[in-house]
Amino acid sequence: MPNAVFDPPELAKGTLRVTPIGGLGEVGRNMTTFEIDGKILIVDCGVLFPEEYQPGVDLILPDMSELKDRLDDVLGVVLTHGHEDHIGAVPYLLRMRSDIPIIGSGLTLALTEAKLKEHRIKPYSLTVKEGQTEQLGPFELEFVAVNHSIPDALAVAIKTEAGTVLATGDFKMDQLPLDGRITDLRSFARLGADGVDLFLVDSTNADVPGFTPLERSIGPVLDQVIARAPRRVIVASFSSHVHRVQQVLDAAHANGRRVALLGRSMVRNMTIAADLGYLRVPEGVLIDYKKATDIPDDKIVYMSTGSQGEPMAVLSRMANLDHAIEPGPGDTVILASSQIPGNESAIYRVIDGLTKLGATVVHKGNAKVHVSGHAAAGELLYCYNILKPKNVLPVHGEYRHLIANAKLAQDTGIAEENTFLAENGTVLDLKDGHVDVVGQLDLGFVYVDGASVGEITDADLKDRRILGEEGFISIIVVVEAQTGRVVSGPEIHARGFAEDDAVFDKVRPKIVSALAEAAGNGVRDQHALQQVVRRTVGRWVNTSYRRRPMIVPLVIEA
Amino acid sequence: MPNAVFDPPELAKGTLRVTPIGGLGEVGRNMTTFEIDGKILIVDCGVLFPEEYQPGVDLILPDMSELKDRLDDVLGVVLTHGHEDHIGAVPYLLRMRSDIPIIGSGLTLALTEAKLKEHRIKPYSLTVKEGQTEQLGPFELEFVAVNHSIPDALAVAIKTEAGTVLATGDFKMDQLPLDGRITDLRSFARLGADGVDLFLVDSTNADVPGFTPLERSIGPVLDQVIARAPRRVIVASFSSHVHRVQQVLDAAHANGRRVALLGRSMVRNMTIAADLGYLRVPEGVLIDYKKATDIPDDKIVYMSTGSQGEPMAVLSRMANLDHAIEPGPGDTVILASSQIPGNESAIYRVIDGLTKLGATVVHKGNAKVHVSGHAAAGELLYCYNILKPKNVLPVHGEYRHLIANAKLAQDTGIAEENTFLAENGTVLDLKDGHVDVVGQLDLGFVYVDGASVGEITDADLKDRRILGEEGFISIIVVVEAQTGRVVSGPEIHARGFAEDDAVFDKVRPKIVSALAEAAGNGVRDQHALQQVVRRTVGRWVNTSYRRRPMIVPLVIEA
């Protein structure tokens, strides 16, 4: 691993080709293509958020290069639910062909359409419900209710001439969800009895033993914390977590408090959720945040974004006293959220800032104010046992999650040769209940960076990492074209290294003499002279400072 | 908060002045000064490891600027234990005056001396033991055994004419430690009965409810994992955690395996620990790692560094197949360590890499293979109750930890006005059992960056962050001195932004015309012309790319 790249054969008629192009070996940018008889169905089209070694990048998209020449063959995109890692890349897909139909539940499509509106795209959309079936060319789709940390999530069964695939999307098996809408194991049982040839299953929590606790176990904790809070309460959570917000509304209401929503995405998503009936707002509870200051401190709850320590979100700005609401002694802040790996430092920075201002901070680390949205190992075992799929493809997760999930499948009796550890770009062909790996595409990262999509390369990111760690030194020298003699400079500028110009006094004569020596040896080529400067400065800075800043030499002929 | 800076008054004779200069509001660079009658005692002198917003920095030192003019008054440095955050800055202190005596336990001094040797400093040192008292000018020091995640840790009672201070250093209260050396609550009781006027107490785990589990609870887990491991076992932990390594040696020995130490600091520290008798090496268990390949795979345990995902440490290199030992199927890797906040992404990257290679990875998340080295809330309550200090200064921790610790003190009946929430540089005067905050020094971060100490500024780090996120564009234009007319260029170079030169074709004419306009308006000053270039390019890149790279203009007169 990683798998060697090899081209898949031409797809035979009547064979279903399944290619995950995002979401394997990573948590994010979930996207899988299904092709049979020349027609393509896409399931999910999400984004991945960059890690610290991808500095400056805004978003990472699935590598859709293989789709570019096949856009006319795409019959539609099924979106399993409304999280960014499943819908976030839809605008970038629709930029390539804007009339690809998008298919999903009411809430999923509403959130996707709101996102597309920001990109000025009005999509063709088809709203579906659990239990519904749709024929899309050679694909018969059946939608199955699943429970997740956003309402209205769907699994999709894809029935074709070649066999049946069930893709769970993200899911867990909360047996007492707030909306009563459980993962529909009855349908799993029926589909399993009819025969599921390939099972694409969420791996995010496959390495977590046991069972995810009930979402409703959080309600009483919120209620207690709010009941005891002497002044304002500020709750931060994910802006799409309708049921978490529901419990905050209910707890506030029970304690005679009103709720103001804070943060653009929180306001937008909850307005959508309330309009569509997913969020039940107790009469008179919501109040515009501008009017919230008129309410006594012990009668208000702010529901805000920023639970991951995002620097521009409401909660971070509050912690930095860069927001109209300035937390202080007596205020209570609840982070009703997970700590996504990589965000811990930022989250603790916010917690620390709030604590320093005098607020009491309640979070996952000291109270049961969060449960995961993904099925843990115990739940996945139920799934495998009720479904009894012929083949399993763990999806959605880092490799350790995929491997843990494959082991669970094997524990329930599925043979090792029927569990597939794939990567993004692994091509699997299904026919007559058999799955074969027939290719490995060479897929990369597509970076969204400001207005640019796919222009920033890994080389640029490497440069950014060097610049960010070490800074740079630029050296400009003007030489006489005929003789190579230095006529002006070296002019030296540095940033992120040492901005005191005097430190370079020692290296200037070295540059001049190195250039004189090169000129004496007949070197005139600009590139070669620049290399001389680079080596001279590089050696000096490494010896004197034990550092390796980027060195940017420029030799100009006058 | 942060406290307003104000100068302390001159120190009156017979008053003890306590100034924490590192370790408050942060986990690291612990250092406190004590002054009475013109003489200064220092307790601890550690380093802080940089966070991601301090890119390229190697270490952060306490700001010792106030000490620079007082070096001759320093009588000694007490080092409570041998961790980097308590001893790491000693070389930088001794660079200022190399004959400041260092005082500590046998292991603490051995580790400090090994570090000083790398800096070619041979210190004056005084080895002390628990129960021992030493008179150092106006300071009478009594050393008290405490238990921590490194052997031979000491608390120190500092008795002066002005009153008695007890500083715990880092500690916990394991009641059945491997070496039988518990935190000496009998001495705490005696000191408390005699009267402790100020208690400096470790806050690291003050917000963790309950009690830290026993270190020895890990042994049986290690034993089980090793017993079941079919091939090689690789254990990673902190290179100073003698008792963790002891348990690995014992478990390996019990399972008929030999142990090879990997990683420079692991080998160095364990050699010291074994030589001094802190590590008991079962006869014939240790083997040089070069000979370890001669041993069957199921008879070897590698004990390595890299448990925090450090990219250059052994474990990361193994995960990247950049080490002679290449993990594979059947191998078991145990991370017997914590996940220090900020390191999670790096740690999971290593776990994922190892898993992908086929190894089974056992870590804190899936087995009880780590316990903390710090007293949790329950233990701290015991401390306060047995000591009954007059005043409390929580130290060693982020603000949330200090605040949690102060609350625990108050829970045991210590008045709020006797618990001090201080920052680095807060000056506290003690006399007759009373503590007053009398000043707030303006202390900063001192960055070690390659060979430089204190030269890199926060402005440099800000530049690095911008460079690292956005890259830079440099523009060189040669103008005619008399007319301001562009005679050569603009030559544009960019790194970390877009390295395709063609993207700049659109902005070159804009630069030329902006400079022509400025020249027409009589602008000749180089700085002003550079500002014209900066604004022109900045506006273009922001409009076209929605990015803000660093723009480095240079206008040269020819």
UniProtKB/TrEMBL annotation, chains A, B:
**GO MF annotation: an example:** 5'-3' RNA exonuclease activity
- Residues reported to bind Ca(2+): G56, D58, D449
Task: Read off the Gene3D superfamilies from this record.
Answer: 3.10.20.580, Metallo-hydrolase/oxidoreductase, Ribonuclease Z/Hydroxyacylglutathione hydrolase-like
Q: Does the keyword Chaperone apply?
A: no
Which keywords describe this protein according to UniProt?
A: Calcium, Cytoplasm, Endonuclease, Exonuclease, Hydrolase, Metal-binding, Nuclease, RNA-binding, rRNA processing, Zinc
- Residues the entry annotates as binding Zn(2+): H81, H83, D85, H86, H148, D170, H396
Enumerate the spans annotated as Metallo-beta-lactamase domain: 28-222
Q: Which SMART domains match?
A: Lactamase_B (SM00849)
Q: What does the record's cofactor remark say about binding?
A: Binds 1 Ca(2+) cation per subunit. Seen in 1 crystal structure, it is not clear if it is physiologically important. Binds 2 Zn(2+) ions per subunit. It is not clear if Zn(2+) or Mg(2+) is physiologically important.
What cofactor(s) does the depicted protein rely on?
A: Ca(2+); Zn(2+)
* Active-site residue list: D202, H374
One biological-process term from Gene Ontology? rRNA processing
Does the keyword section mention Ligase?
no
Concerning InterPro entries, the annotation shows: Metallo-B-lactamas, RibonucZ/Hydroxyglut_hydro, RMMBL, RNase_J, RNase_J_2, RNase_J_b_CASP, RNase_J_bac, RNase_J_C
Provide the assembly information.
Homodimer, may be a subunit of the RNA degradosome.
Sum up the protein's function in the record's words.
An RNase that has 5'-3' exonuclease and possibly endonuclease activity. Involved in maturation of rRNA and in some organisms also mRNA maturation and/or decay.
Q: What is this protein called?
A: Ribonuclease J
The species this protein was found in: Paramicrobacterium humi
